[in-house]
């Protein structure tokens, strides 16, 4: 039962994140803050891909830590870009300060729930 409650809670937080980003777009009638959604949704992908590529084989004793470090770096780059992009839009006068704040908070909520979903489902796979 706790699994269902976790999924419902994470889904509602994800919906709040999308709502904040969409409201930040509708506030200025400018849809450039939607790029934040794509950035934060794609952010965990390099970490996941590089983690899968670096799994040591039974015949090899060393693990490729360089590829894991690259995945972490690229994930960090995407997260920082998701925060910096609305700030650059605000600085250039494309979106307002309220839209910037709503876009950053909504993007961080989206990223947090995507990471939480992956952690939740990776734990359930290991049990079976």
Automatic annotation (TrEMBL):
Keyword annotations: Membrane, Transmembrane, Transmembrane helix
- Please tell me whether the keyword Membrane is annotated for this protein: yes
Q: Name one GO cellular component term.
A: Vps55/Vps68 complex
The UniProt transmembrane annotation reads 70-89, 101-121
> Any idea what this protein is called?
Vacuolar protein sorting 55
Topology versus the membrane, per the UniProt entry?
Answer: Multi-pass membrane protein
Q: Does the keyword Membrane apply?
A: yes
Entry-linked PROSITE patterns: PROKAR_LIPOPROTEIN
PANTHER family with a match to the protein in the record: LEPTIN RECEPTOR-RELATED, RH04491P
Q: Where does it localize?
A: Membrane
- InterPro entries the UniProt entry points to: Vps55/LEPROT
According to its UniProt entry, the protein's GO biological process terms are:
late endosome to vacuole transport via multivesicular body sorting pathway
Q: Which Pfam families match?
A: Vps55
**Family label:** Belongs to the OB-RGRP/VPS55 family.
């Amino acid at each position: 039962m706790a699994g269902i409650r976790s999924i419902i809670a994470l889904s509602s937080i994800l919906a709040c994140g999308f709502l904040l980003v969409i409201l930040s777009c509708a506030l200025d009638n400018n849809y450039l803050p939607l790029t934040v959604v794509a950035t934060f949704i794609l952010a965990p992908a390099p970490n996941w891909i590089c983690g899968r590529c670096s799994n040591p084989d039974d015949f090899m004793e060393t693990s490729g830590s360089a590829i894991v470090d690259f995945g972490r770096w690229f994930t960090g780059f995407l997260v920082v870009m998701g925060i910096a992009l609305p700030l650059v839009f605000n600085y250039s006068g494309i979106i307002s300060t309220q839209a910037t704040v709503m876009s950053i908070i909504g993007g961080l909520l989206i990223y947090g729930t995507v990471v939480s979903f992956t952690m939740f489902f990776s734990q359930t796979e290991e049990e079976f």
